[in-house]
Write a structure and sequence with these properties.
alpha+beta; about 190 residues
């Protein structure tokens, strides 16, 4: 028991140290900012194309939505704790304006390994999109229960209603992830890139 407590303590300290190191960055130059924006847009376009290949109807849904957001995330899990970090962009379909954002997710539970995955959000209404972009956005514990009961499986569509006016598709390298897990996720504007 004592050995398990020590292992847990060291694991938790390692995760905290990694998080602090990731937060400590130097200000970027104008060229670095432009390069980062271009990289996010390129990855976002690749993710959308992948979604369109798997779900042809998604192209029309994205076109009809008030806007959409595309996020690329990388996560790792070691023993009882895990986290993922990512970046993305929200596109207003009316104005074609890009808003660059970040995301962070804590995922408690037993596990080990790393996973790369992507999320595509569709905003049915302008107010849902504005709230997501301007207020930041968080998933809490109650969202998980709502996700499990609102998965849409008709016609091959695996989008999940995560909030009023917001549908989310989550994809991994292997394809769609049916069991969407977003407990402890936070999405917020990237002040450096906007």
């Amino acid at each position: 028991m004592k050995k398990m407590k020590r292992l847990f303590t060291w694991t938790l300290l390692a995760i905290i140290c990694l998080g602090l190191c990731a937060c400590a960055t130097l200000p970027k130059s104008a060229a670095q900012i432009e390069s980062k924006r271009a990289e996010i847009l390129k990855i976002s376009n690749e993710i959308l194309e992948k979604a369109y290949q798997q779900y042809p109807e998604a192209r029309e849904e994205v076109r009809k939505a008030a806007g959409y957001g595309v996020f690329s995330n990388f996560g790792f899990k070691f023993m009882f704790m895990g986290s993922s970090r990512g970046a993305g962009v929200v596109v207003d379909n009316r104005t074609k304006r890009d808003t660059f954002m970040k995301m962070f997710e804590l995922s408690p539970g037993l596990g080990f390994g790393a996973q790369k995955f992507a999320c595509v959000f569709l905003f049915d209404t302008r107010s849902a999109m504005d709230d997501f972009v301007n207020s930041g956005w968080e998933f809490g514990g109650n969202t998980t229960a709502a996700l499990q009961s609102s998965t849409q499986g008709t016609g091959g569509r695996l989008g999940v209603d995560v909030a009023p006016g917001i549908t989310m598709y989550q994809l991994s390298d292997e394809g769609a992830i049916v069991g969407v897990s977003v407990t402890g996720a936070k999405y917020y504007k990237d002040d450096e890139l906007n």
